[in-house]
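Quick look at the format.
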Amino acid sequence: MLLPLSSHNVIQYLQETGICCSEDRASNKYELLKSSHDNLNLLVVLADNQKLLVKQKLNLDDDNSHEFFNEWLFHELLQQFPVIGNIATLSPLVLHFDEDNSIIVRNYLSEYSELGKFYNQNDIFPPEIATAIGTTLAELHHATFQHREYRNFMATAPQGQFRYSFYNPAQGLDSITPEIFGKVPTEALKFYRLYQRYESLVSAIANLGYEWQPCCLTHNDLSLNNILIHSRWHHLDNCLVRMIDWEACGWGDPAFDLGTLIASYLRIWLSSLVVDPTIEFEESLHLAMTPLEMLQPSLQALIRAYLNAFPMILEYRSDFVVQVVKFTGLALINQIQASINYGKYFGDREICMLQFAKNLLTIPEESLVNIFGLSESEIVKPWAKIHEFTKPQKAAGLVPIYYQKTRLRGC
């Protein structure tokens, strides 16, 4: 039977697991942090001022009930394979995993804060931060690229269960059923109507699923809120950032990680749009309170740092940057879906975001210039060989096999 944690028994639980001493019980403190509908989050300060984050999965009936196992598996991977464990920004934080009670305990980095909050509070986007992120992500992808031992390790399943395959994130909406009317507000139904109306969008997502190429270890949920920035980042040469919450990690396509991260940057811009029924879509994009031009130096630094640390990816896939743009569009649609599921909201700003995401998926080469302020050739030029990269050709007469109505992540 699941042991429900609370502020009343968390200290006792940590003592029973040997993480803290019973003699210091009176000196230990706890604080209930902001929790989600899935997780309970408790911050515990021990007598020696060590800070721990104790998390418990509350909803064990959904498809994400084994996310803590994934994070623990990633922790074990870092321990067993020094090549990855030596990447400073990925240093292990997990101290304890209780699979029976779905509890995970990790160190709390008090000198770090969420990068999303940092950007929001300071309204600055230093390229050196994006460079550190791009380099770290590329080092992870490069170190695990096409290594079967890492893939086999990440295929480990919870005790008594099986993993038949890794999750392909390039999916779209399920078939719309009458049950949807009881799950989302009336105004949010417009999202589903628009999605079904855009046949080119549905087809583009299906093709992206067909083109998905898992080849390395991926984070799979790399938003700005899952990246921490050091409080003294401008004085440090290393460990400016830390990547956390590896609950969704697995064997995947590196373009998905990079696209998800870029989408999180673009969300800052798109969330600041000035929207009104009398304003055209293109005009609304240019009237944003946080202009795209403010983000572009960081976006350019991010993609260049990634390619500089992992140029081999362009030999493996010459259209890699275009694929990143497509996955950026998919990530924006996933974010809209999440806001409907959890925030129960879909308004004019989300309509603009959906339109922009559609452009990323259906006209990626043109959208690439809009995002980065550079063309694809300008981005890859420093790593291009004497001959030009040839675009992959689709075999004539072959029809991709995919579901007619693809499914969004989390649906």
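Next, a different chain entirely:
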Amino acid sequence: MSSELVPLDMPTDLPSIEREIGEHEALMRTDRRAYNADTSRQIRLRNLYEARAGSSARDLQPEAGADDMAIVPLAEFRAQAPDGNYELYVNQMRQAGDVVYAVPGPERLAFIRGLEALPDGTFACMIGELMNRGAVAAGYATDAQVRAAMSGYPGASIVREWGAAANQNLAHVRARLWRCIDSMASDQDADRFLAWLAGLTEAQAKAVYRKLAA
């Protein structure tokens, strides 16, 4: 997003950006009808996501994978894929960037390389789920399921971060993960995805779960 399009009241430091994003995403989870009816709030959230990506990118060192996540200009995209859908490509990169830039800088390159090592079909299903805004019948996770989620799995500390919303958020994340797995072409792809998820670091897994809970 060019600097002249950034709203004047947009926060510039990452903690403030994250805090306001959290407020908007909380409304999305608790009162989706009100969120869907508020166009200005939706635009604000999109601008915040872009501001977060820009703020994170400024801290990203070249060796930490900046080139991997850079959105190529339209002319370059057309040269490489004359019949490709540029709007879809940009959306895919932004959705993936929301996760990647939420990973601590020193871990980003390893995270990107892990994604690149996945089969193309598995990665496509993951990106498809990030772009899928369709509702899932999630309900609420039980207290026992919340406790189990804190037992030895990477990203378990996200439950404490969620606090009172943990039961709802965990159920939402589980439902989206299963929808993602169900879209995969084979059991081997699903197994590869689950192995990748289990091998993430704590911070990497939390970045994934935050995005899925939004």
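The radius of gyration is 17 Å.

See the schema section for token definitions.
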